[in-house]
Specification:
globular; Glutaredoxin; single chain; disordered C terminus; about 240 residues; two-stranded antiparallel ribbon
Length: about 240
């Protein structure tokens, strides 16, 4: 069973949603048969590429949220993360900026077989350590952490090899109904907007699994019928 999740690197609900999805899959009875694939849903392309902003400034510039309201909303997310064992999870004290290059890096790492590892690393770096993930040098440091070829990564980012893939990823999510991030699609049939709690996601995983794996009825012998057993199992003889 495949689970697709679209995220923005600096979206605090995306980092939390990423964590909740991992917990739900870990609790799922068929976890070994679930493939989780992460995709990009950039939301900060309007920011300039050559500078970053504090979260406080960004909330004021983009959403008109300031002062105590900004403090309350971000602290709430940090508290939710801590309650679920995701700590430290730094939101209010962070910097935000244009993440287009970060998404290209994630697409490049995914092409090298590091999809899950790259998304884990970038969320841990940004929210866990409050370190920047915007510049070429920031991302090359991440490539070293992941064991990627540094010069190959530099070339891919400098020449924007994965730019179209990132755009296509986001366009695909919009066609599926996404208007923001995080956005999860379970087995191609359940679209889940927002950072739903892990219990809800677990229920959806089970529903999707049951849809495609109906229980096999077990025949019950009656009237003294004796099951006939072979190498693949047992069955009750059918009498005409």
């Amino acid at each position: 069973m495949k689970v697709d999740i679209w995220s923005e690197v600096t979206c605090p609900w995306c980092g939390l949603g990423h964590h909740r999805l991992q917990r739900a899959v870990e609790r799922f009875e068929h976890a070994s048969e679930v493939e989780v694939v992460h995709h990009s849903f950039p939301l900060s392309s309007s920011f300039p590429e050559d500078r970053t902003f504090s979260v406080r400034e960004a909330l004021l510039r983009r959403h008109g949220v300031s002062g105590g309201q900004a403090e309350a909303s971000t602290r709430r997310i940090e508290a939710l993360a801590a309650a679920e064992g995701l700590s430290p999870y730094r939101v209010l004290g962070n910097q935000v900026g244009n993440t287009d290059l970060a998404h290209e890096f994630l697409a490049h790492a995914s092409a090298q077989g590091k999809n899950r590892e790259a998304w884990d690393a970038i969320f841990d770096t940004y929210f866990g350590k409050a370190e920047p993930v915007f510049s070429l040098e920031d991302l090359l440091a991440l490539s070293d952490t992941l064991g990627l070829d540094r010069e190959q990564t530099r070339q891919a980012l400098a020449q924007h090899h994965c730019r179209e893939q990132v755009r296509d990823d986001a366009a695909h999510a919009r066609r599926l109904g996404a208007t923001g991030a995080p956005f999860i699609v379970i087995d191609g049939r359940y679209g889940v907007p927002g950072a739903q709690d892990s219990g809800t996601l677990l229920d959806l995983l089970r529903s999707a699994w049951d849809d495609t794996h109906p229980p096999i009825p077990i025949p019950v012998a009656g009237d003294g019928a004796t099951p006939v057993c072979g190498p693949d199992g047992c069955a009750v003889p059918v009498h005409g």
